[in-house]
Design a protein that fits this description.
This protein is of the alpha/beta class. It has eleven helices and twelve strands.
Length: 382
């Protein structure tokens, strides 16, 4: 991104760790005595502390949403096209916070953290968590940064679920919410995909009931779980366009059960890459948190009643090719919000990228987010 002087502005971010000042009570009834949250910030908090935006990541994400760790860092943050100087979520204008969720493996407390009671990694002794538990931990972090009211909470997929939880659990702390490509409850089909993924990990001989060593991780099971999940992030159109029925490194069928097709090679690569970045036990806990996400259930099946406490303005976005969290799910959220006479904007953005469109459709989505955030800041400042 060019500055006014014509120079490229390089955004350097630094990961930090916040220790919650008190034990964290969880929905399952258990308590985590010590909780660390890895986070990064970009931009500057205004003197009025009214320009803070929390970005919540999806299942396999982390706190590194934008920028680079050094001038020579080849890999920017996972939403760097959307967040940064002069971009839709402009770090010259806003103070951006992104934290790694509770239960993950990118710096925040999770199953491979050390249990203070035993001095050993939790592994599967880590308590089962929910999306609401993740948000409870985020609230402590946000307050520690001197923010009493967020301009917005933004998130796609699982990040959108966190954004919705913010709206109903801490309505006085949120000016606006931008849930993208998300749902108010995980569908039976999605629960089924999560179950099969976890079963693949459990059936890996290295899994050892979650007590595997760093040198002997259940990489085959975790890679299979990732390949299965990754298929749900794509659409038939995007897979056909990207791979078709192209063969990989061959001109004819092998008449064997090795990789023949380009799509097979791609999925294998995604699986291997995921094993290098993620922890199998964290995959268990985060997918289970997704399974348990059901906002209507807490109000006897009435989603509108669940949103009765919300006060924020909403920008809801979906994509027609997203069959994991289809547009119908976003419309369900919109209808529930409108029943509560909340300020709601909704847009279905044309895209054939599938669920991954929230990461890839930067131009169309970015224009909406840019205008919405500027309006909310103007309204907030009167």
């Amino acid at each position: 991104m060019l500055s006014e002087e014509g120079f490229i502005k390089l955004l350097i971010t630094t990961p930090q760790t916040f220790r919650l000042p008190e034990p964290l009570s969880l929905d399952c009834g258990k308590v985590l005595k010590e909780v660390d949250i890895r986070y990064e910030t970009a931009g500057t908090l205004s003197p009025q502390a009214d320009n803070a935006i929390l970005i919540a990541h999806a299942l396999s994400g982390n706190a590194h949403v934008c920028g680079r760790y050094s001038e020579n860092d080849p890999k920017p943050g996972w939403w760097d096209d959307m967040v940064g100087p002069g971009k839709a979520i402009d770090t010259d204008r806003y103070f951006v916070i992104c934290s790694n969720v509770l239960g993950s493996c990118a710096g925040s407390t999770g199953p491979r953290s050390v249990d203070p009671d035993t001095g050993e990694p939790y592994n599967l002794n880590f308590p089962v968590i929910t999306i609401r538990d993740m948000v409870r931990a985020q609230k402590h972090l946000v307050e520690s940064l001197g923010v009493s009211r967020l301009l917005s909470v933004v998130g796609g997929s699982m990040g959108g679920m966190q954004a919705l939880e913010w709206a109903i659990n801490y309505p006085d702390m949120v000016n606006s919410v931008i849930p993208i490509a998300t749902t108010s409850q995980l569908s039976p089909q999605s629960i089924a995909f999560d179950w099969v993924g976890r079963e693949a990990i459990k059936n890996d001989p290295r899994w050892n009931f979650g007590n595997y060593s760093p040198e002997q991780v259940p990489e085959g099971g975790l890679a299979t779980a990732r390949m299965l999940a990754h298929i749900t992030y794509l659409s038939d159109e995007s897979m056909s366009r990207k791979f078709g029925r192209e063969l990989q490194d061959t001109e004819s069928y092998s008449f064997a059960f090795q990789r023949d097709f380009a799509v097979e090679s791609y999925l294998e690569h995604q699986g291997r890459r995921f094993v290098e970045l993620f922890d199998a036990n964290s995959y268990f806990y985060i997918t289970r948190a997704l399974d348990y996400f059901d906002m209507a259930r807490r109000s006897g099946g009435d989603l509108a009643k669940t949103f009765a406490s919300a006060k924020a303005a909403f920008l809801v976005a979906s994509f027609p090719s997203d069959w994991l969290f289809p547009t119908a799910e976003s419309r369900k959220i919109v209808h529930a919000l409108l029943k509560n006479r909340l300020n709601v904007s909704f847009c279905e953005i044309k895209s054939d990228y599938g669920h991954d469109a929230f990461l890839l459709e930067v131009d169309a989505l970015g224009r909406m987010i840019r205008d919405f955030l500027r309006n909310r800041l103007e309204v907030q400042r009167g």
